[in-house]
């Protein structure tokens, strides 16, 4: 085992869980055993909540300009430790080193945004009547929780950690049991940056801890990122306990390709979007709708896909089960009459025979009713459908139950605007394969890709992590008698 067993992080210390239940942490890169992760109990969660609750009064009363100093230092530490963090991220998740570097760079951008929060949370003040002022303030909620998935071991935690904490909350994070290592390293960096003990805590585990978070009476808000199935469970359970909740779910993102699209750029973008992070991105292109004759572009997409080599510029998928599931989808599409233009099944990487790799896969002549057209595959696979008109393409996109992202590739500005207006998704790209909004713009989909109001990052997150206090004051009664006297 390469690393010592993973521990919970409570009140600034790494501590053993109170149970003996453990899972193995296996590297998808080569199948090596990296560590073990405890399946904590509600008792462990309770200890973390107690620590967070005790830290809250002092932390929340500190002026925000003082609180964000921690995040200026944390940003510097992320930069200083970028290489080591990226290596750890690749080891536990399976993505390429370059993709992990990009992930840590995104953590830095998220932290820069948090450091700018003092500029964004100024309240409002108005003399509402003679001598009477009303003012608003953003007040932290208290103890909050963040439940995260396996596909971005560092970035998704950093969607919530810097903003929620800079805004004055104390946090408990529940990492994915598949990739528990990065979060522990983030805890060390936060401590080194000067974050007081108890403000940030980690409780490892599975659904038992997630349920305990949703039920805990002293947790005020729950953010979740993961599959739609679990997002629904968490949103329902947390809100039924009267908590604030925001639950981001899965995705099936459609790219619409028009015949006038720039061939090389489109092909490179489509191939990169479907295969980046081995297709395990909630923003990955999973379905493509070719409008009219786009055979010339599809041929180039296949050329680009063939340049993507597992174990070199394509990482592993998270597990053996995942590899089998993805390959099953491809076989089912073939059986149903689709044409496999580039086939990523049965891949083995020399020297990493126990790694879980799937090659890039391009499936053409997919029908909207096939499972590869409808379901989230979460692998480096693109399913191509064909239509005659933009409206038919939009009808296919609109009919899918998710709504994270959609993109169009064209040189026609009017049609691009028409697609922005009519696509049923929260994040739209024009000639952009992965239309993730950069800070300060917020991240969040629609429909079955997100449950709750607002987005998880950017300015929108201020509303989620704070409540508004409204005060009305009058100090000069001599100013005149009026209806508020
Ligand atoms: P997942 O839903 O299986 O797990 C997410 C978290 O929920 C983990 O911490 C896990 O321990 C916990 N969990 C799992 N099953 C549970 C259950 N039955 N009850 C309570 N908790 C449970 O997701 P994953 O496989 O880790 O991540 C991949 C999914 O996340 C994909 O669907 C992907 O699209 C989605 N995702 C969405 C976004 C977004 O922004 N919308 C971002 C990243 C990932």
Describe this structure in words.
There is one protein chain. The chain has two domains: 8-249 and 449-470, Aldehyde Dehydrogenase, Chain A, domain 1 (3-Layer(aba) Sandwich); 253-430, Aldehyde Dehydrogenase, Chain A, domain 2 (3-Layer(aba) Sandwich). The relative contact order is 0.13. The protein is built from 16 helices and 20 strands. β7, α6 (155-166) and β8 form a beta-alpha-beta unit. The mean pLDDT is 97. The chain is of the alpha/beta class and 485 residues long. Nicotinamide-adenine-dinucleotide binds next to α8 and α9.
Bound chemical compounds = nicotinamide-adenine-dinucleotide
Please outline the major beta sheet. Answer: 7 strands, mixed
Query: How many separate structural domains?
Result: 2
Going across the major beta sheet, what is the strand order? 14-15-16-13-12-17-18
Low-confidence stretches: none
Q: Structural class per helix/strand content? A: alpha/beta
CATH fold call of the largest domain: Aldehyde Dehydrogenase, Chain A, domain 1
Classify the beta-strand content into a percent band: 15-25%
State the shape: globular
The averaged pLDDT comes out at 97
Amino-to-carboxy terminus distance: 72 Å
> How many helices does DSSP assign?
16
User: How many beta-strand segments?
Assistant: 20
Quaternary state of the chains: single chain
- Write out the CATH superfamily name of the largest domain: Aldehyde Dehydrogenase, Chain A, domain 1
The value of Rg in angstroms is 24 Å
Task: Based on the coordinates given, report the CATH architecture of the largest domain.
Answer: 3-Layer(aba) Sandwich
CATH class of the largest domain: Alpha Beta
Helical residue percent? Answer: 25-40%
């Amino acid at each position: 085992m390469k690393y010592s067993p993973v521990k919970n992080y409570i009140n600034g210390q790494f501590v053993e869980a109170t149970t003996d239940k453990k899972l193995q942490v296996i590297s998808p890169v080569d199948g090596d055993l990296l560590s073990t992760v405890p399946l904590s109990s509600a008792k462990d969660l309770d200890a973390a909540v107690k620590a967070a609750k005790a830290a809250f009064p002092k932390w929340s009363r500190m002026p925000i300009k003082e609180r964000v100093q921690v995040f200026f230092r944390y940003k510097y530490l992320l930069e200083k430790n970028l290489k080591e963090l990226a290596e750890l991220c690749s080891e536990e998740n399976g993505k390429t080193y370059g993709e992990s570097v990009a992930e840590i760079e995104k953590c830095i951008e998220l932290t820069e945004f948090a450091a700018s929060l003092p500029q964004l949370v100024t309240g409002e003040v108005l003399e509402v009547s003679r001598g009477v002022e009303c003012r608003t303030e953003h007040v932290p909620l208290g103890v909050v929780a963040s439940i995260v998935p396996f596909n971005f071991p560092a970035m998704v935690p950093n969607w919530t950690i810097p903003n929620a904490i800079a805004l004055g909350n104390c946090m408990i994070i529940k990492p994915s049991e598949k990739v528990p290592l990065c979060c522990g390293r983030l805890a060390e960096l936060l401590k080194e940056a000067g974050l007081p003990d108890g403000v940030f805590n980690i409780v490892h585990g599975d659904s038992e801890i997630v349920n305990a978070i949703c039920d805990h009476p002293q947790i005020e808000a729950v953010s979740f990122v993961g599959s739609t199935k679990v997002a629904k469970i968490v949103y329902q359970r947390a809100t039924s306990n009267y908590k604030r909740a925001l639950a981001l779910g899965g995705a099936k993102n459609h790219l619409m390709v028009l015949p006038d699209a720039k061939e090389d750029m489109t092909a490179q973008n489509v191939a990169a979007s479907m295969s980046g992070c081995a297709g395990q991105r909630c923003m990955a292109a999973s379905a493509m709708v070719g409008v009219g004759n786009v055979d010339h572009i599809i041929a180039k997409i296949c050329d680009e896909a063939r340049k993507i080599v597992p174990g070199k510029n394509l990482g592993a998928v998270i597990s053996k089960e995942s590899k089998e599931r993805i390959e099953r989808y491809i076989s089912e599409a073939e059986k149903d009459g689709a044409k496999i233009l580039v086939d990523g099944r049965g891949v083995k990487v020399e020297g990493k025979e126990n790694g879980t790799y799937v090659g890039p896969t391009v499936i053409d002549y997919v029908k909207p009713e096939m499972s590869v057209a409808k379901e989230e595959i979460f692998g480096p696979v693109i399913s191509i459908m064909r239509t005659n008109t933009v409206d038919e393409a939009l009808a296919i996109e609109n009919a899918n139950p998710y709504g994270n992202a959609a993109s169009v590739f064209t040189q026609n500005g009017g049609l691009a605007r028409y697609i922005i207006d009519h696509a049923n998704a929260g994040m739209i790209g024009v000639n952009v394969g992965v239309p993730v909004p950069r800070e300060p713009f917020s991240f969040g989909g629609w429909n079955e890709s997100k449950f709750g109001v607002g987005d998880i990052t950017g300015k929108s997150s201020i509303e989620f992590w704070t409540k508004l206090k409204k005060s009305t004051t009058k100090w000069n009664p001599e100013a005149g008698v009026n209806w508020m006297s």
